[in-house]
Amino acid sequence: MFIPGPRRPVEDATAGDAGGDALEAAASPLRRAAAEAERVVGQPVRDVRVVIPAGWGPRRRTWMRQVAHRAGLPQPRLVEAPVAVAEYLLATGVRVPVGAFLVVCDVGAGAEVTVLRRGPTGFEVLATLADAAAGGTAIDHALADALIGPSMAEGQRASVADSVRVAKEALVSHPAVTVPLPDRPPVIANSAMLDEAVRPVAWRVAQLTQETVAAAELTVGDLAGIYCVGGSAQLPHLAAAIAEHTGTAPIVVPEPRLVAARGAADVGAVDTGTVERVEVPVPPVRRAAAIAVPGFASLALIWQCLLTAEEHGVLGVYYSVSVNWGEFTMAAVMALLACLAAGTVLGSLIAARSPTPGTRTEGGRVSVGILAAVSLGAAIAGLYAVVTSQYFGMPVGPYLKWALWPIAPVSVMAVAMAIVAARQWRTPHGGWSALLAAPTGSIVAATLGMGLIQYSLTADRWPDRILWIDIAGRVGGFLLGVAVVMAVVTPLMFRLILAAPVSVICAAIVSRRAAGMLGVIYAIAVATWWATRLWSRILRPAPPTPTTPPTGPVRAHMSPGGGR
Description:
By secondary structure, the protein is an alpha/beta fold. The protein has 20 helices and eleven strands.
């Protein structure tokens, strides 16, 4: 039985006959490799590492563990191929600083292109794209068609597969080779045939590289390098096509077939005598402002809400309190925004004191930090409700409703971001800290606006001050409308167009009865802002601009040290 691409998707793994056991077919080579390893070292195999594609999900990873179990091996450690390659590059002296990005083009039977980022504790996958039809198998089929014609039966084609594969590898360094064929005279294969077979595959790998970099929301200028590995990495035109598409000449790693296997042996190798430290980053001034502004805004709003609330009572029998529910709601929203802006710092603090290895990865820290921020923001909002209700001696139910329900949509979307970070599906452009920071201008405008509205509703209306108090309330409504537009709309031109009508409407409806509605409107605007960023930055980032395959020869742009 023969499986031509052992790292192809699980559903492609077939045995020699229709009723064969795919698990046994995949376990057989592992069993033989383990037996040879035991013969060489003279003791049983205890540490098993299996290289898998970065794009494999939970089902395929579980299947591979079942294969290792069928082969009689201990529980394996699954190492993603690009991560293994990156570890090998580090071990051989390639400089990849912490925070740097690199691309690994793994071209074997198929192609898989991955963008990696080096974090303090290892490499993480930012984006990966694969195409099973862009590798050595497609080249073999094209070369076989050129040698024996596309009309040959599938059984005959399989009989000459080894001869075609050997001829393909020989043509890399020889102008022509003789290819023996069963039941017919041998034929001559030359480098022109190989070039014709390789060119569309090389173009597709180059396009895949460009798309993967765009999917990671990076540019070629952000990369520390592009490295080609795999059995087909040394084929002609591949490096030139990647250079043509990206403007950067890739490097073909020496002995590209063995790089992933050698790198997997070094993954996770740590000095047991030292304890890994996780540094807690000190946020720069801009990020500190993104945390401090909503935090102080929340405290200012809840302080004014408590001090200016109006208590009513008749002979001590009927007692009620008039609270600006809009200001109370906005205080809860600002508290949540401040906590989310500090999400990455919270994650680093938790990781520095956590014994769990999963929280020390980049994705683990961000995920834990976002979840901690959501919990802390909800706790502060609930605390506002409890303290306010106890301060006035009123039931806590209405206060909890106005504090927690408006922040629920933002909390749900933040949890979705935490799931994305934990599974390392995608890292947003600019990093997670930039994504979690709310627009400071909108927060300042909304806080000032609601503060002026509350002043106009509760200030002593002396005859000589009524006009100015009313103007202050209208200005506050105008500022709140500007804040809503700044949160919902990003392009400056659209902001200018929408700010006037929305602000005028908000200024016109300022009243004691409408104050709560204005606060809810701003909470909806913040939720819309978060939904837009979740969709456009993580779930559906802008696709790369499609390119057209070359019709003529691919021009090579090489630099010293580039791949062949």
